[in-house]
């Protein structure tokens, strides 16, 4: 029988005592998308619905790389290769951090998140440099197609996201201290998911470019299906409490 000091109201939820935290994902029960205490970050890559996201992003990457490498390689070939690799890395950066809930997990997860996103951003930036150099060398028109416009918007958001994310965690004094920086975390998370959607939309738009229609032949339906898988694997793991909901 519970004493006044250990009443039912004061007892931790079963999920918390089991070491999976108290946060509830968008889909599922409390703790379903949380990294169990004592388990390494490696399991986060496939925990819960992450396996669906992994299937989607790897299939999408394979489709792009297979389409490129089965055609004669040119300078432009690096653009889809680098961008698809960047998207793959950024997706890994998201899924590895989502399930963390303890201080130690969050610190370790943020470090790995930063590494994945850092390499992902570098790959995406290199992809931008390649296409711009290719446009300049051939006298092409810049940012004319829906793919190019979406890509530019995505790059701008991604640059802001990267700079703010680094400042929030590594140099919080920029925002007046750790507490002020933490208040912005939920906005950083939301914008990260928006950027993921924008990036997938940019890939889908790429299937309608003249180069893809004449050379690569990547199908729009294939990109849409894999994009849905990625989002279906990532979104259900979103912790409502981390977004202030």
Write the layout of secondary structure elements.
Elements: H1 14-17, H2 50-69, H3 78-97, H4 103-138, H5 146-170, H6 178-182, H7 185-206, H8 210-216, H9 220-234
Helix pairs in contact: 2-3, 2-9, 3-4, 3-7, 4-5, 5-7, 7-9
Commentary on this structure:
By secondary structure, this protein is mainly alpha-helical. Helices cover 63% and strands 0% of the residues. It has helices at 14-17, 50-69, 78-97, 103-138, 146-170, 178-182, 185-206, 210-216, 220-234. It is globular.
What does the average pLDDT come to? 88
User: Uncertain runs with pLDDT below 50, 5 residues or more?
Assistant: 1-18
- What gyration radius follows from the Cα positions, in whole Å? 21 Å
Give the helix/strand class.
mainly alpha
Number of strands: 0
Brief description of this entry?
The chain contains nine helices and no strands. It is mainly α and 245 residues long.
Can you give keywords for this protein?
245 residues, mainly alpha, 9 helices, 0% strand, globular, disordered N terminus
């Amino acid at each position: 029988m519970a004493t006044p000091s250990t009443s039912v109201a004061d007892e931790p939820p079963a999920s918390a005592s089991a070491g999976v935290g108290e946060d509830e994902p968008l889909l599922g029960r409390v703790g379903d998308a949380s990294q169990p205490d004592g388990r390494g970050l490696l399991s986060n890559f496939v925990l819960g619905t992450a396996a669906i996201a992994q299937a989607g992003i790897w299939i999408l990457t394979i489709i792009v790389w297979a389409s490129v490498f089965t055609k004669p390689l040119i300078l432009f070939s690096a653009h889809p290769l680098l961008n698809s690799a960047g998207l793959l890395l950024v997706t890994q950066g998201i899924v590895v951090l989502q399930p963390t809930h303890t201080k130690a997990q969050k610190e370790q997860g943020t470090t790995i998140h930063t590494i994945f996103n850092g390499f992902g951003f570098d790959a995406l930036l290199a992809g931008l440099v390649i296409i711009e150099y290719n446009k300049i060398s051939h006298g092409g028109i810049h940012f004319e197609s829906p793919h190019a416009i979406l890509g530019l918007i995505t790059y701008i958001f991604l640059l802001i996201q990267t700079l703010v994310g680094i400042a929030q965690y590594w140099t919080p004094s920029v925002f007046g201290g750790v507490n002020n920086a933490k208040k912005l975390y939920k906005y950083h998370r939301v914008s990260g998911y928006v950027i993921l959607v924008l990036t997938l939309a940019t890939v889908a738009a790429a299937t309608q470019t003249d180069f893809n229609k004449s050379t690569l032949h990547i199908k729009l339906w294939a990109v849409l299906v894999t994009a849905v898988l990625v989002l279906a694997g990532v979104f259900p793991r979103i912790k409502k409490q981390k977004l202030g909901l």
